[in-house]
Design brief:
The structure holds 2 protein chains of 2 kinds. Chain A has 14 helices and 8 strands. Chain A is α+β, with helices and mostly antiparallel strands. Chain A has a 4-stranded mixed β-sheet, with helices on both faces. Chains A and B meet through helix 3 of A and helix 1, helix 5 and helix 7 of B.
Chain lengths: ~400, ~190
């Protein structure tokens, strides 16, 4: 996989410079449009400064920004021991230097993503909806996919690109709004000033067009490679778990739930294992993820082996295309898949799922779970004022620990 | 004039070769460290499994009166694994322990009361996870050994490996025919 890591590192650098040039051009045009031809250079300087600051921010705390904007909460092992175990298993299988930090997102929709700058500083996040719906093997498949993103260094690329995209959108939106409101009041920017030259008007039109198109282009740039990364992460996940069916059935469950994620947005969407938007919203971002049905079919075809070569072969049979796996990974040793570790169980009903999501979020938010001898479990909020609580069914008094 | 130029060219080539040798040597050392690290990870997980077993047996014993044989097998394999003197002995005992534990996890399905016990469910998850971690640590070790052995055998790194005494490592083989069978998926 070294070749893929190299490619991703190179792409990250290319992306950074590409976005920087783009920001500078935008700065020049916007500067000229606002303050005349001489202000164009000032625009470049400002844009460069913005780019410089953003790059520093995205290197040092880009993952934190993305996690916070997805409303992910850091948790410890007591909240969901199985999630921690599964992430540790996959970190061992992938030989990661450190187990990633684990976050839970309060969202009904099942989904997950990984972020960070390097394998040493990586984080993985799963939604409560995901944890409530998947069994152990499926959860393992999903986490293996995320760990593969970490191993392939996709996380840095996505973090850098996400912050850059966000800043271009911000800059364009600011200009468009400013232009819109000033044109409402006195048209100062376009025709005001002493020299209402044709040049400046031209720049103004250019600036408006660019401000509308820039976010679209930036998004295209951003999405261009994310589809291939998803296939590669699937192949990597199968290689780690040795069990294609786990990921396949997880993808099936995730995509069959018709709930859009409330905590996802256009910038964070490509990070998720499956496109977080459903229905109307999905069309807009259709190109970020390869079709899930195709990914599932590829995985289900891999019954005889789990190496990268087997994935490539299966990919070719399903899509009639080839070359998804970099050549260096195709020299991989063949290995056989393993048997399922959990016995097949009936799917949980929606009532159970909602109940589990509720309990999980109570644990995340620091509720105390107090089992009473009469059979019910009392769930006490962290800010419960009294030192004792009475069981609502049998009337037994429980003493709460320390408070 | 041309003499000094040739000297410079030779010097440049020499420096270039030295840099290449250093970088190959460093990558070999890195790979060898990764192999050692993966090996120690297996050790860590095996030890974790030994620590887990008394607790597990204690919790499950009361519910599973008819499975004394299974428990005996587990405790016996554990004490043999802990007292093993050689690597071959340890590998044999650990494989026996893996077999006994996977049988235990199968038998558990027949005891619904046990499966309703929260304590036991937590233990079962820990056991399943530890078993997985051992398997994945082995897998990672074998992957690292593969990278390392390939590097040692391939040109030009084989020359440097020979010079500095990098030797081939052995794979961690396990005998489990059940794991080699493809799973049957029915819809």
């Amino acid at each position: 996989m070294w070749e893929q890591i190299q490619i991703n590192k190179r792409n990250s650098i290319l992306l950074l410079t590409g976005m920087a040039l783009f920001l500078m051009a935008l700065g020049y045009v916007l500067g000229s449009a606002i303050g005349g031809p001489k202000a164009g250079w000032l625009g470049i300087i400002i844009a460069t400064a913005v780019w410089f600051i953003l790059t520093i921010i995205s290197f040092t705390s880009g993952d934190q920004i993305l996690l916070a904007s997805s409303r992910a909460v850091p948790v410890d092992a007591n909240v969901h021991p199985q999630l921690f175990n599964v992430v540790e298993e996959m970190s061992i299988a992938a030989g990661l230097p450190k187990i990633p930090k684990i976050y839970i997102i309060n969202d009904q929709a099942p989904n997950a993503f990984a972020t960070g700058r390097s394998p040493q500083t990586a984080s993985v996040a799963a939604t409560a909806g995901l944890l409530a719906r998947l069994n152990r093997d499926e959860l393992q498949g999903v986490m293996a996919h995320e760990i593969s993103h970490i191993v392939h260094r996709d996380i840095l690329y996505v973090t850098l690109a996400g912050v850059m995209l966000g800043s271009i959108v911000l800059l364009s939106q600011t200009f468009l709004r400013g232009a819109y409101y000033s044109s409402l009041s006195n048209r100062r920017y376009s025709s005001g000033g002493r020299q209402s030259s044709g040049g400046q008007a031209l720049f103004f039109v250019l600036a408006v067009v660019l401000s509308i198109l820039a976010p679209l282009f930036a998004q295209l740039f951003y999405f261009a490679l994310s589809r291939r990364r998803e296939y590669l992460a699937d192949a990597g996940a199968v290689r780690l778990t040795r069990y294609p069916e786990g990921l396949a059935s997880a993808l099936e469950k995730i995509s069959s739930t018709g709930i859009s994620m409330e905590s996802a947005n256009a910038v964070t969407a490509p990070m998720y294992i499956v496109n977080p938007f459903r229905g109307k919203n999905a069309a807009r971002l259709l190109s970020t993820h390869p079709p899930v049905e195709e990914r599932i079919r590829i995985l289900r075809r891999m019954s005889q082996g789990i190496s990268y070569r087997d994935y490539e072969e299966s990919y070719r049979q399903v899509t009639n295309r080839s070359g998804i796996i970099p050549p260096s990974a195709l020299k991989d040793e063949p290995a056989a898949p393993r048997t399922p570790s959990v016995p097949p169980a009936p799917p949980p009903n929606p009532f159970q799922v909602n109940r589990q999501i509720g309990d999980l979020m109570r644990k995340v938010n620091g509720f105390t779970f107090l089992p009473c001898s009469c059979g019910i479990t009392m769930k006490i909020p962290p800010n419960f004022p009294a030192p004792k609580a009475q069981c609502p069914r049998c009337g037994q008094i429980h003493t709460l620990r320390s408070q | 004039m041309t003499g000094t130029m040739w000297m410079w060219v030779l010097l440049a080539i020499l420096v270039f070769l030295i840099v290449i040798v250093i970088s190959i040597y460093n990558s070999l050392v890195r790979l060898r460290n990764q192999v050692d690290n993966a090996w120690s990870q297996i050790d860590v997980q095996l030890k974790r499994r030994h620590d887990l077993i008394p607790n597990l047996v204690e919790t499950a014993k009361g519910y599973m009166k008819h499975e004394r044989e299974t428990f005996e097998k587990i405790t016996e394999a554990r004490s043999r694994a802990m007292g093993a003197k050689t690597v071959a002995e340890a590998a044999k005992a650990e494989n026996a322990l893996t077999g006994a534990l996977s049988q235990f996890l199968l038998v558990v399905e027949n005891y619904p009361e046990l499966k309703a016990n929260q304590n036991f469910l937590a233990l079962q998850e820990t056991l399943t996870s530890t078993e997985n971690k051992i398997a994945y640590a082995r897998q990672a070790y074998n992957d690292q050994v593969l990278f390392y052995n390939n590097k040692i055998q391939m040109f030009p790194s084989n020359l440097i490996a020979g010079m500095f005494g990098f030797t081939k490592r052995d794979f961690f083989e396990i005998e489990q025919p059940a794991q080699r069978e493809a799973p049957k998926v029915s819809f």
